[in-house]
Amino acid sequence: MTPATARPVPRPPLPQRGARYRLVAPNSPTAPGIVRDFLGTLLRATGHPGFVEDGRLCVSEVVTNAHCHTRSPLVRVDVTVNPKRVTVYVTDDEPVSLPWRGHTEPTPCDEHGRGLVLVEALAARWGTRAGGEPVPRSKTVWFTLETA
Fold first, then answer.
1. I need a labelling partner for 43 at 20 to 30 A (CA). Which of 10, 52, 58, 82 fits?
2. Can you tell me the distance from the alpha carbon of 104 to that of 95, in angstroms, rounded to the nearest whole number?
3. Residues 13-45: pLDDT tens digits?
4. Alpha helices in 6-138 (DSSP H)
5. CA 49 → CA 11, 53, 55, 74, 80, distances in Å?
6. How far apart are the first and last CA of the chain?
7. What is the mean pLDDT of residues 85-98?
8. d(CA 101, CA 108)
9. Which residues pair with 88 in a beta bridge?
10. How many helices (H) and strands (E) does the chain have?
11. The 85-92 sheet, strands edge to edge
């Protein structure tokens, strides 16, 4: 039997220097649009216009997953911005159903399942963590956008 090796899951980046921003939204069908507009405005205002489209798409996909797959009443979005990178953390209050990094690729006929594939393609790195701040029984999906 040939041994199989899995790609290591990246750990969330250490706290980085930079400005920190937070938005807390109800976990509702409107949350992805609200968070998408928040991040787009924030990225333009902080001098990262090149990250706007990728950031809006990634955060929309992650917040949509939180809405569709959890019963968390709130979704918290924390963003750390510095001159070279932006890291976005999306946290819900349901530690179960942690996204799996080795998920199978969707087929062309699939109507769902492309969100994290898009995040993986657009972000410099992404990952998940269960528990921690601000709620010990929580789940966070994070991604980082970086300048080349």
1. 10
2. 22
3. 556 678 999 999 999 999 999 999 999 999 999
4. 31-45, 52-69, 115-122
5. 26, 8, 10, 28, 15
6. 40
7. 83
8. 20
9. 79, 143
10. 3, 5
11. 19-26, 74-81, 85-92, 139-146, 125-130
